[in-house]
Amino acid sequence: MTERDLPDQYLDGCAGILAEVSATGRRLTRDEIASRRSLGEQAADAGYGLRALVSAHLSAARAAWPGTPGSADSALAAVQQIVDAFADGYERAQRQAVRQEEAARREFIDDLLYGRSDLGRLAERAERFGLRLSQAHAVAVAQGPAAYEEGAPVPRRLEQALITRFGNRDVLLTTKDGRLLCVAPGHEDEILPYFAKQAHAATDGGRVAIGRPRPGPGGVVQSYEEALNALELAERLELDDPVLHAADLLVYPVLTRDRQAMSELVHDTLGPLTNARGGAQPLLDTLTAYFDSGCVAAEAARRLSLSVRALTYRLERIHKLTGANPADPAHRYMLQTAVIGARLLDWPGTEL
Fold first, then answer.
1. Alpha-carbon distance 72 to 78, whole Å?
2. Residue of 300, 278, 284, 297 whose CA lies nearest to 339
3. Is residue 58 over pLDDT 50?
4. What's the rounded Cα separation, in Å, for the pair 213 and 206?
5. What residues contact residue 52 under an 8 Å CB cut-off, 6+ apart?
6. How far is 323 from 167, CA to CA, in rounded Å?
7. Strand order in the sheet with 207-210
8. What is the CA radius of gyration of the chain?
9. Which residue among 107, 166, 205, 319 is least packed, with the fewest CB closer than 10 Å?
């Protein structure tokens, strides 16, 4: 990338500022400095190199400098060559250092999240990346409509937001399998909720799950897996919450721990719904909406875009087919547990 390839937008206003500053001798204003900083960030995000940027600005300085060729112009031309050569070497060294650092960081993160390294050695390496694994940590995982990689604009914005809010508090922000991850000390109660809020906005309404604080190097793996399981449960259960806490979803792993028993409950309780006209799915959706709305018929009807009378008819049909009355507290727990099991087992789409 040469200065001729650099769009004029990254030099916008530069010539005017240089001309006025050279004529008056004043310093740049705060707004002028902010505008240059903003353009620099935009150029970096667009992938333009430091050498082309510096060279283009020096060319602009030469064009704006008063005087005749052979004086200031010649001096600035030499300065331009010097800076260009310096920046070239700088970029080469920086790229090599970044590649080495990224490789070491990725290897550490993989070992941390999968527990594939000696725990003592892992704890030593963790200090290099700002973590003290002797204490408890919790992990938050954010999933959006797109896959995210290290160094991309979204992770950078989140990292900047965390640093601005909390400074350096042993927080690790990274990506894994296209998701955003934040590892924070377990006793810092504000960090992960703040990350969840920022990540939900940055990912255009993505979902965030927060694992429970766990002690030691192995605790990061456990908290990470809890957060992943929470995201999977939310998708299967079609939960609407943008932020999920693994501690609030502990009942679901308990329900699915004995898959055979859950399959039998779903089959025996809800199996008769397959005999209904249109199959079991419409009636299963009715039960789901009814229980999710706190067994309030009017609210369940609104969610299903039905009249209350139509909803009541469906509930009566369920009662007739299954022998269990959704409105009866004695039957409600069994039916609701079976409905949750059906959603976890993807029934009736998947045969039990």
1. 10
2. 284
3. yes
4. 22
5. 1, 2, 3, 5, 6
6. 60
7. 172-176, 179-185, 137-143, 207-210, 243-245
8. 30
9. 205
Amino acid at 286: T
Residue pair 236/325 in contact by the 8 Å Cβ criterion: no
Which token pair is 181? Answer: 């991850």
Residues ≥6 apart with Cβ < 8 Å to 189 = none
Peptide bond into 348 cis (omega under 30): yes
- 133-188: per-residue pLDDT in tens? 778 999 999 999 999 988 888 999 998 899 889 887 688 888 999 999 999 998 88
Distance CA 155, CA 203 (A): 10
Residues in a beta bridge with 140? 182, 210
Name the one residue in this structure whose structure tokens are 């070497």: 89
Distance CA(336)–CA(289), nearest Å, equals: 11
The DSSP annotation for 105-116 comes to HHHHHHHHHHT-
Q: Residue written as tokens 């409509």?
A: 145
Angstrom CA distances, 332 to 58, 157, 250, 315, 316, stand at: 76, 47, 20, 12, 14
- pLDDT at residue 94 tops 50: yes
Largest CA distance in the chain: 100
What's 49's DSSP letter?
-
Other CB atoms within a 10 A radius of the CB of residue 216 amount to 16
Is the dihedral angle over the CA atoms 50, 53, 56, 61 positive or is it negative?
negative
- Counting every residue written for the chain, the total comes to 352
Q: Which residues have C-beta within 8 Å of that of residue 197, sequence separation ≥ 6?
A: 243
Look up tokens 């259960």; give the residue. 237
Global pTM value: 0.63
